[in-house]
Amino acid sequence: MTISLDGPGVSIDDVVAVARHDEPVELTPAAVARMTAAREIVERRAEGAPTYGVSTGFGALATVTIPAERRAALQAALVRSHAAGLGAPVEREVVRAMMFLRVRTLALGFSGSRPLVAGALLALLNNGITPVVPEHGSLGASGDLAPLAHAALTLLGEGEVDRDGVRLRAGDALAGAGLAPITLAEKEGLALTNGTDGILGMLCLACFDAAALLTEADIVASLTVEGLLATDRPFAADLQALRPHPGQAASASNLRRVLADSPIVASHRTGDRRVQDAYSIRCTPQVHGAARDTLTFAHDVAERELAAAIDNPMVLPDGRIESCGNFHGAPLGYAADFLAIALADLGAIAERRIDRLLDATRSQGLAPFLAADPGVDSGLMIGHYTAAAMSAENKRLAVPASVDSLPTSAMQEDHVSMAWGAVRKLRTVIANARRILAVEYVAAARAIDLRAPLRPAPATSEAISVLREVVLGPGPDRFLSPELRAAEDLLISGALARGVESVTGPLA
Fold this sequence. Notes:
The protein is mostly helical.
């Protein structure tokens, strides 16, 4: 599949397809026409009064007028000086998403760069050339200046790239792909670096991952309901309708469908002396549902940004070239911080369910730590420690990044968003929450196996069958880490959800 990039109409699924699955991208004729028209405006203005980014310096140096013969050097100098990041390289998928989204803005025709520049970025994507972009450098102020500059540097044949897992000099990689460096003209250095594309790319990937994670969380929690001999009655549709939050309704519906026709749940509908289950069970739809509603907010923010023109200055169809603040990352930073808070709590309630499964005083007759021979065997005791450690880290990462600001550029950029930091930590929160759920998945499946001859629901039985293809059932202690990683892989790949949905039909 080739994605035809017109500028408008880019979706989160498009970002994932390019970033993770290397789908090729091409510009539409309409996008080329818009860029060409905007470029003509820039070239006319280059001969007139000083215009920011066209014939002046940048940031606090905006008052310095640059003579015509030095303007190409100005753009190259901008890219070289702004490629000042440090730290480990960010993930390949993030760099690819960032480049794709920068071309998206250029294709809207408000940046004033030649179609040649957008085409050069697409050539990197389509030839599997990924610039090496250090993790640290973006404040989410004029967007992702340093990360985007590292990507732009590759177009000049400078810096480093990865291709097929091999680190190369950019010039060598371009030559190997039959490509040549380009020379930037007026405004094009700014057009390549003034955007929220790294932040937005990571938020899009996070929204995609979080949607899958929330479905998996409902499935895994359903296994725990059975493993703890808990009841499904609080998830009833009429009870849930009394508090009409859409995410809560969706989560409760998932729980009901996964637990449908469960002999384990039916086995104690009458005669159970317990009046109600603990909050970590009974309030699952409320917590999971609130996370769903938070994701909806973040998803909406990402979609609006996918329709936005992010640059400075903006080249308008009436011939004006105007400075603006559209590059400020606050909307994305707030959304990322909010989603990190919600998913940190999703991991926290899962950790509490794990603890309850392993505590013989609260697990309704299960062996301590689900061990085969308690004392000799420790069972899943330390698996819980791992989940608790990640839950604790997520609580630290839930502290908002977007409330911070450090003034830079001689006080010209005196309020910055820190949105890059917000989405970086969001990615870690999602990975940690998924691993916590993997521990719960292993523990809950073992608990259900130990309830035999009671049988689980058809859907949860399928969930256990998926796990048992890679993780053995109850037994003496064995090397646990690979089993937890295998369960995590089932969540990453979507195998758990696919298996369960083969029984239930599509879940929310």
